[in-house]
Amino acid sequence: MQIGTSYSYDRGGALLRSLSDRAANLQTTISLNQRIQTPSDDPVAAARIAVIDRKLGDMQQYSTNITLASALIAQSDSALDSVQTQLQRARELAMRAANDTMNDGDRAAISAELSGIVDDLFAIVNQRDARDTPLFGGAGTGDAFVRGAGGIVSYAGNGTPPAVPISATGSIAATDAGDKLFGGISVNGTTTDMFAILTDLAAALAPGGTPDAATLRARIEDGLAGIGAADTRVATARASFGARGARLDLESERLATATADARVDRTTIDGFDLQDSVVQLQQMMLTLQASQASFSRLTQLSLFDYLR
Predict the structure, then answer these.
(1) Into which CATH architecture does domain 83-242 fall?
(2) In this structure, how many other beta carbons lie within 10 angstroms of the beta carbon of residue 226?
(3) pLDDT tens column, 58-71
């Protein structure tokens, strides 16, 4: 009789533990929205899911990169828009200075405003991005442009901006180096840059900056030609940034679709069914409650109750 009682207790306890464990597993399955919690649950499916999870991780990184690249392109375009605004104002000033009715005082005022434009452009092209690197500094980490003796502005960056990976097979240049954007401009057979064009024009219009009227007119014409060439260079760059932004939009849509498809594949392989799992859990809890009640009544029986 002692052996039977002990066996009944052990068997009842084991049954309750088994039911509790199964209920707990179902609850975990529902909370995680997945059937496979460990590789031993389904080794083949678990291996396939691991591959998909790595793929999803890569796609999440590409999505982050696309967000970064989009921000850099937007900042670059905004900066170039500001550059164009300053160049357009410089063109207006140069055309006014070419008017024969202007006197030396008028031209001196224009010279001062052109110098102010150079200062504004210097600040614009030395912006830093969200990573605290120079927006137009190429691969450099210091300022993209510096001022030397006599206030001469020169490019201090180096190399090509590192491309941003946006897929397993592609990357994109989210910005351009300052020497490409604002340097290498040809004016009457001479290669110069945006800052030199404006600085030379401001110097020509300053008091005593030009020996005679003919030379002054020639320098103003060179300035206008240079400003026009610089503006064209910036406009071309903005069109390129626009094309890159459109590419990012397409890649973002493709990535979103691929991510959704991968998640569907993962769910299909895992075989998780929320409604079925909830029903199973409810049935399991009813079975567990009934077993607990039966076991409780059994343990309360005395020998006299049993004999009776």
Answers:
(1) Up-down Bundle (1.20)
(2) 26
(3) 999 999 999 999 99
